[in-house]
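Listing 4. Sequential folding, example run.
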Amino acid sequence: MRRAECPLSGWGSLRSARRSTLAAGLLAALLMMLAFGARSASAVTLEDFSGPAFQILAPGEDGSTFPDSFSTDQGKLYDALTAHGGSVSTSLVETDYVSEKFGVSGSVLRTETPIPGLEIQRDSHDIPHVFGATRADVMFGSGYVAAEDRGLLLKLGLGPAYTAALDIPGISPFRLLLNGRSFKPSAEAVKFVEEQKNVLLEKGARGEQVLHDLESWAEGINAYEATLPEAERLPTVTVADAIAGFAFIGSIFGNGGGGEVANSELLANLQSSLGAEEGLKVFHDLREVNDPEAPTTASKAFPYDQLPTGPTPGSLIVDPGSQNGAALHAAKVSKASRRKASNFLLVGHQLSKTGNPLAVMGPQLGYFYPEIVMQGDLHGGGIDAQGVIAPISPYVFIGRGKDFAWSLTSAGSQNTMMFLEKLCNPDHSPPTRASDHYEYNGSCVSMKTGAAG
């Protein structure tokens, strides 16, 4: 997707936003949504402080099994602009991009009213503009249009999403989706994922709000599915599916870390060939901690994941070549699933010809059919947001609010950790690779296994 945000009046700055728990991303999404602060569900009274605002999603908004005119219309617009290279003018952007102003720009193609208090207006590109009397109505509408516009993707993706939530080694959830391979989670797996909602409940009112949002979103999907012939419907969608969906998004765009054993083996090999002291020096030189020559976009330091200053009894050095084939394969699959190389251009108001800040944001999601995201415009119950929605969640996660906009790129932060456990046997015999117990607080504890699906 390529999107252009032209002047947003009143901006003083541009604010930008794999999980320590499955639910952490849900709470972050809620906090973003709460910041929008709209009061109205009417297209007439929408408050919008932006100047011209544009977006484009190739190939198009519709992603059904049988493509229609709205499946490729934006792809054609995007291609038309590409031919102009470095000679893109304002008039070309206005012609070859789609409006991202709140509400419908131009005529309303059609209107849907799935439930009282909810109206969905479709613009000339079939982009849904959702107006709800309450927040629950808006979340219901987000689910309804997800099923309508990305039902095929939901059918293909809800099963693989559980492989992300369970973090099954050696399996790429996104690759399962792209290859059209199904995954049916076991009852045990569904129960495990569903229990992650307790993390939200621990956060109090905001966490409870996220759960209410997910419940309304699932109800919206199921409501649209009820309009289809029974043989074409999705299985009933639940909150557990929504939680798994957030894990799926994280496995693509937020998956970082998890290289502790590989790093340990690298250090072991360096020290084996260069000696303990020289090998450690080379390792420190290669490690990405704080490179003073690296380019930065922030004026203030942001210390994160620095070198430890105290003892690290858990940072053991493994024997060179001790990783087995399964471990190497799992690491390779995890690394291959990470997507990178999004881009953005920002111009502060001091350097802008209009005196307003400018933003051109290009999150690189790749080109697929159906596209893995959809467009949406959500209003009502404290929400004012337009942009990109992942159909396996209710929230706008790339887009704009009343007076600010944000984009994303792939995260490389240390949010997946690998640990070494010391094996043991209950009979106190020497442990081997076949041992299924480990030491914990002086006890020999049995490892647990479960059926994923």
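-- end of first protein; second protein begins --
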Amino acid sequence: MANVIDSLAGSMNLTGKMEALSKKSLEEKQSDSVAQNETYKILTVLKAMLDEVTPLSEDGDIRVFEAERVLEYFKKTEDFEWIEKTQALTRRLKRVKVTSEQRRIDGEKKRIYTMNVKEFSDLCERFKI
């Protein structure tokens, strides 16, 4: 319709404006979609957690965290306060390459989460976090 109006008026003014508005609307929708994405939310929480929770160990790019401490951290956030058990959190963390396993620490079996901070940074870059 904008093309018809422009052709009758002898200009390309309306078509250009419509294209610009359409592009702006698409960018806003994509931005909203990313912010609502659970993977985006997980990455955001993990990024903040890296500065606030002390890992059990660090070996190069690998960080090891006690699962219960990570769960407690996630439960304190608005987006993940509903998570009750580490199993539910583990399923979600797999999406961002955080692995779970059991290890014997100080004579006790404990569930831990392992993450490669270099891979994690790459993921954050992809999501523009």
